[in-house]
Amino acid sequence: MTSNSQSSEQVEERLCEEKLIRLKVDLRLCTIAGLLCSLNLLDSGIISSASVTSMLHDLGLDQGNRYSVSILIFTVASVCFQLPATLAVRILGPRIFFPLITFSFGLITLCTAFIHTWKEMILMRVLLGIAMSGIYPGLALLISSWYRREELQLRFAFLQAGQLIVLATGGIVNYGLNHLHGNGKLKGWQWMFLIQGLVACVIGVATYWWIVDFPEHSDKSFRFLTKEEAHIAASRIQRDRGDVVPAPFTWKEVLRHFLDPKIYGFAASFFLLNLVTTALSYFLPIILQSGMGFSTNKSILLSAPPYYYAVIPVVLSSFVGDKYRLRGPVIVFNSLCLIAGFVMLGFADQVTIRYVGTYLATGAYVSNWAALNSYQASNITGQWKRAVTAAAITACNGLGGVAGSFIVRQEEAPRYVTAIWVSISSHIFIICIVAAFSIFFYIANAKQTRGRKIIEDTEGFRYTY
The whole model's pTM is what? Predict the structure, then answer.
């Protein structure tokens, strides 16, 4: 009896220690990860806000499809460097990698304020794409390394919530900066790039002390965990899926994971999702201006509230997903909400109803970003496989951005029929992919229960769907 009592007390004590460590990780990692992820959205916020000012005319981006090309070329550059950038997170470590690329992003954004031609804008966009290539996959890899599978979606939601607040606030800041037009011989759009580039540089410097390392090296992070706490943090992940310590790096070890068909299903889902993400994040002010008749400043200002609203559904849906260990049903629900939002945006006659549709669509695609990330992270094991999957889904996410940059056509204003139908169709396909995965995962789990299958080469591992 005494022995059982002591054992129970030890378990309680261990659980309390793990909760305290998890809270420390939440406060350190999720906060800086949200800020760093917001930089990619911050870029789309700056250039989309600037697109309804004089920038397109000043740089010659209003000729043909040059503006769409400037968005496309950023994505192409980012996609090309995503796999090596993601591997570099593991090889160099987060405390070197993230400060370096964040400061580079800020410096390039700042320099964009002083360009004069569309060709210079294209060059800046290429450099920016290279600098930003490791942000999303690198942070997805780092976060998935720190949390148990049933904790992941809510943490991805925290990350999304942080970047949404920054992006929405950035829209309001852009509204204010546009009023500086003429001050210091700079135009409003130049102030947007200058000020927010400076802010990103400062964040880059602070990231060196703020970001944390992977669990097995976390005691080396600046004023974070002790060696004992780092051991406890690593142990809880090891118990969950047994992949804390990566296998020695070899290209064979990395490339063999591309033989797993699940990676392509996850990657296709992110491609389809980012068709919508790009269309809304880069073109929302243009849709508000050309499609709904708002003025330049109102278009910039009204593009912010849908992102503030999106914090609510992403946190609520992620809480439900983690609490009940649901992934597929949450993704399907979000997809149906997005379809409803685009139906309102594309086919309603009243401007109010169309504007409300942007809230539904924005909240749904943001929620699905967190849901899809936890979906893939919950169903793979192995550090190099996580790196490969993160790079693959982010690359396809980027390719979705390439396609998404061309589906909002100015000549189709105010209805934007192509964008509406492509966005609806993409989420019907996402629902089909989730349905196929659910059947596959159900059959695999049934075989594992009967002892006929070891999933992901890990004893006791089961798919989460």
Answer: 0.82
